[in-house]
Amino acid sequence: MEDIQEFGYNRATGFMWLLQGRKKVEHTFKRVRQTVSYAAEVTAFADKGKLWKITGVTASGPRS
Questions:
Q1: Around Cβ 17, how many Cβ atoms within 10 Å?
Q2: How many C-alpha atoms does 16 have within 13 Å on its Cβ side?
Q3: What parts of the chain have a pLDDT lower than 70?
Q4: Integer Cα distance of 19 and 25 in angstroms
Q5: Could you tell me if 25 and 34 are in contact, meaning their C-beta atoms sit under 8 angstroms apart?
Q6: pTM of this structure
Q7: What residues pair up with 27 in beta bridges, in sequence order?
């Protein structure tokens, strides 16, 4: 993700968001042969090493 325009984090709720200039970005992790797509807006809740209610991120490909 190279064209990040805004990133925010609310410490009280753990809500975080990221806005990028492009509509969608895809990245392939070669070691695990998995492609991840990031939408123009990605949101999640974060707490001590874990994320939940993630939106704007999808993964495809083999998990071997």
A1: 15
A2: 13
A3: 1, 62-64
A4: 12
A5: no
A6: 0.79
A7: 36
